[in-house]
Design brief:
This protein is about 35% helix and about 15% strand. It is α/β, with parallel strands linked by helices.
Length: about 210
């Protein structure tokens, strides 16, 4: 049986991910900061088959995806996510979301900052370097030599393995990029972030030094 997927955020990324996860056979729960009842109609129309739930219920899923604007990460409840495997699919977009001291004045990657806030969550960075529209268009069978690859970075090997299995079922090769800090290689404005790559291409890029 596939793990249950909880998605925090019902914007373009969250709903595209929900549809793709449903297509892959997962049970999907979606939550926002609003009560579940307020999201029920939207979820029924935009992501038929998914369940609108409270955020605590989504956080109780086997695998949780953070698909909210990054500047709202402090609205997450660390207690709800304690011990959970959490995919950070968020990006720091200062031109869109505004400048944040949390990320401008911290040498760490955005995912490391989020991990510290969540304290006990098992954070894995991935799904942040594919467009929401591409997610539902670029999937391919595992046997396809042109299958697109997505990078995965995290400090918990078991958490990464779970996430890599999820990505494979979504229709993408998963490439282990290393520790959570290594997620810097696929933050915005990097070669990985701005392109589409097969697994061999992506493996080569994650080990290349970043431009200063």
């Amino acid at each position: 049986m596939h793990p249950t997927i909880g998605i925090l955020g019902a914007g373009r990324v969250g709903t595209a991910l929900a549809r793709q996860a449903l297509k892959a056979g997962y049970r999907v729960r979606i939550a926002t900061a609003k009560p579940a009842a307020d999201n029920a109609l939207l979820v029924d129309i935009v992501t038929p088959g998914a369940e609108a739930v409270e955020s605590s219920e989504a956080a109780a899923s086997d695998l949780v995806v953070l698909a909210i604007p990054l500047h709202k990460y402090r609205t997450l409840n660390p207690d709800d996510l304690a011990g959970k495997v959490v995919i950070d699919a968020m990006n720091y977009w200062a031109p869109v979301d505004g400048v944040s001291d949390d990320f401008e004045n911290d040498a760490r990657t955005s995912s490391e900052v989020v991990e510290q806030f969540l304290a006990s969550a098992r954070v894995v960075k991935s799904l942040n370097h594919i467009g929401y529209h591409e997610l539902e268009e670029d999937d391919k069978p595992a046997t396809d030599p042109h299958r697109r690859a997505l990078a995965v970075a995290g400090d918990d090997p078991a958490a990464k393995e779970l996430v890599m299995g999820f990505i494979d079922r979504l229709g993408y090769d998963a490439v282990d990029a290393g520790t959570l800090a290594a997620g810097r290689a696929f933050q915005p404005a990097t070669a990985i972030f701005t392109g589409s790559h097969t697994a061999p291409q992506l493996r080569a890029l994650v080990h290349q030094p970043l431009a200063a």
